[in-house]
Each structure stands twice: as structure tokens, then as C-alpha cells.
Specification:
alpha/beta; D-Maltodextrin-Binding Protein, domain 2; 12 helices; about 350 residues
Length: about 350
């Protein structure tokens, strides 16, 4: 009886192991294989990308899990011992660099990566992430409200410290928003750390609230809830194109920026399909889709921003050290939260 019980237990163990193993893509002809993709891209972008991706990689069944950049970054770190995703798609390159340092990314250089603009290619070995598009800090400025208060349009960051803007500025929380983090990291790099923290101390006196997404401050300025919403370039252009009474300000003293990128997770259950997806993500076709939402994309000569987009914006992007941002992210966020966290507006 003991031997029969042992054989029965072994059979059950083997059956359990086979059920736990991922189904190989070729196991059933014509059947799509689920691929879990963590992303921070906007919902309308997911719809465009999903449709094209299904055509380009017909064996894949994309399962999209969306959140803000900070939330997705923290989730991937928290899940390191119980990974749930195959790919990170449209996540800040500084976050992917942090995940790479933690050993959570697979090393893969997609076909066609050499055709991309150099700063969209992972600069450090082993090559693990590939840039898609870039977004940069911008001010959505409600000129009508400003004129009613006798305020001038700012052209420099320090002009946001004017007393007349007290309580009239909205900004993203850098703990949750990639836009918020690029703004803070940009000031720290371009001004120097001590002057940048002094600037943010003074700016905080004019900030009414720190919001949970990079788009929210621009929308607040568009609705007249703030004179100035610190946001990103393409959200500003989209709001203005929709008729919002805002000006798009890219300060002449330089702006921080970030790029969205794609990477395969080291724990990917479908690595071959994941590589095909990343190959497509680096293609001209994919970049043409990114260019619907972004003025700066990885593939040369693809972007065609609308007439409302500031022609000088890309020229005002600072030299951005992504590796420094990744290495200092936790320290920067802890210090920022200590100083200004009381004004974060909860969901």
C-alpha cells in the first residue's frame, strides 16, 4: 500500500508540474499565446499599438496591464520573486535602467536597433532596453487667467517663483508620475543639487497641489483651476489642439526629459515571442504609431508634430544622465517626499 501511495503521489506531482509549465507557442497551431505586458502608455496608444502588434506578431495575445510609471516600476520591483509580466513596454528608460541594475531585464538587442537615433539605444552592456519616444517638461500656461492677475508669461523656470503665482501652480507627484520625476531630475542636473532644492523650496510655496499623473496639471490649467500646470510637451499640444486656452512654454534655460522604452523581463515565460515583439517595437512601422502621440521618436525622419508644437522644444532638452537618474531615484524621491509630500493630492 505504501508503494502504491508513493507511485500515486509521484504521478500527481508530474501532472502538477506539467500544468504549471508555460504552453509552448507552437503547441496548438493558430492559437495565440498570452503575453503579459506592463505599460505606462496612454489608453488610446494601447489601442493603436495593440492592433498593429497583433498583425505583426500573430501568435501573440497581448495582455496589457497599465499604470503610471512610478507604480509600474515599484510593482516590478515588488514582484521580483514572483514575476507576473513578460515585457515592459513604454516604461521610462531611467526605470528600466534601475530594473536592469536589479537583474530583472533580459539582454536583447532587437533587429534594426542600429537604425535608431543613438540616444534611444541602451548605452551600457549588456544591451537590455530600446527607446521608443521621448517626452519633455513643459508649462501649460493659462494666459487669460494670468492676464487677469497681471502676470507675465514665464520664459525661465525661476519666473514661476513670482508672488502673483502663489497657489496657482499644479505639478505632478514624482513618486507616481514619470513626468514629475523628469522635472525634478532635470532641475537637479541642470541647476546643481543645492540650487535645485532651493528652487523647489521656493516653487512649493506657489504650488497648490501635487497631482498623480503628468497630464493632470495641464488639464487643470486648461480648465482654469491653475494658471500654470507643469506637464509634458505632447499633453500640452493635445490640450491646445482641443481648444484649451493655454500657451505651451518650454523654458529657455533647459528642460528635463525622459524616453519611453521597451524591454524583455528576465522572467519572461514566452521569450521568443517577446523578442519578436521587441523587434517590431523598434521598427519604422511602430515608430510611425508612436509619432501620432510624440514629436520626438527613435526612428529618424518619422515624426511630424502638429503646427501647435513648439519648434524649438527638442533643442532645449538638457543633457540627461539616465544612469545617474536610476542610481539616485530612491534618494531623490525620499528627499522630495520629505520636503513636499504633504501637498500630494490623494486619488
Amino acid at each position: 500500500m505504501e508503494r502504491k501511495a508513493l507511485r500515486r503521489a509521484l504521478r500527481l506531482l508530474l501532472v502538477s508540474a506539467s500544468l504549471a509549465a508555460p504552453l509552448a507557442p507552437a503547441a496548438r497551431a493558430g492559437e495565440r499565446v498570452p503575453v503579459t505586458i506592463y505599460t505606462a502608455i496612454e489608453n488610446e496608444q494601447i489601442a493603436w499599438i495593440d492592433a498593429a502588434l497583433r498583425r505583426a506578431v500573430p501568435e501573440a495575445e497581448p495582455v496589457w496591464v497599465r499604470g503610471s510609471t512610478g507604480v509600474i516600476t515599484d510593482r516590478l520591483l515588488a514582484e521580483r520573486d514572483r514575476p507576473q509580466a513578460d515585457l515592459a513596454f513604454g516604461i521610462a528608460a531611467s526605470s528600466l535602467t534601475l530594473l536592469k541594475r536589479a537583474g530583472l531585464l533580459d539582454a536583447y538587442r532587437p533587429a534594426g536597433a542600429d537604425a535608431l537615433r543613438s540616444f534611444f539605444q541602451d548605452p551600457s552592456a549588456p544591451y537590455s532596453w530600446t527607446g521608443m519616444d521621448a517626452y519633455l517638461g513643459a508649462i501649460c500656461f493659462n494666459g487669460g487667467l494670468a492676464a487677469a492677475r497681471g502676470l507675465l508669461t514665464p520664459q525661465l523656470w525661476r519666473e514661476l517663483l513670482a508672488p502673483g503665482l502663489n497657489g496657482q501652480i499644479a505639478m505632478p507627484d514624482p513618486n507616481r508620475s514619470g513626468t514629475g520625476f523628469l522635472l525634478v531630475a532635470g532641475w537637479l542636473q541642470s541647476m546643481g543639487e543645492a540650487p535645485a532644492w532651493a528652487f523647489m523650496d521656493a516653487l512649493d510655496r506657489n504650488v497648490s497641489a501635487y497631482l498623480l499623473s503628468g497630464s493632470a496639471p495641464c488639464r487643470a490649467a486648461a480648465r482654469g483651476e491653475a494658471v500654470a500646470g507643469l506637464s509634458f510637451d505632447m499633453r500640452a499640444a493635445a490640450e491646445k489642439a482641443a481648444g484649451a486656452p493655454i500657451e505651451i512654454i518650454v523654458p529657455v534655460d533647459g528642460v528635463g526629459w525622459e524616453q519611453e522604452a521597451v524591454a524583455i523581463l528576465a522572467s519572461a515565460r514566452q521569450p521568443e515571442i517577446a523578442r519578436r515583439i521587441v523587434d517590431w517595437a523598434a521598427s519604422r512601422e511602430a515608430n510611425e504609431i508612436y509619432a501620432r502621440s510624440f514629436a520626438v521618436v527613435a526612428y529618424p525622419d518619422v515624426s511630424t508634430p502638429n503646427a501647435l508644437y513648439p519648434a524649438h522644444a527638442e533643442a532645449r532638452m538638457i543633457r540627461n544622465d539616465i544612469a545617474w537618474e536610476a542610481a539616485n531615484r530612491a534618494r531623490i524621491l525620499a528627499e522630495w517626499t520629505r520636503r513636499y509630500g504633504a501637498k500630494v493630492r490623494p486619488e
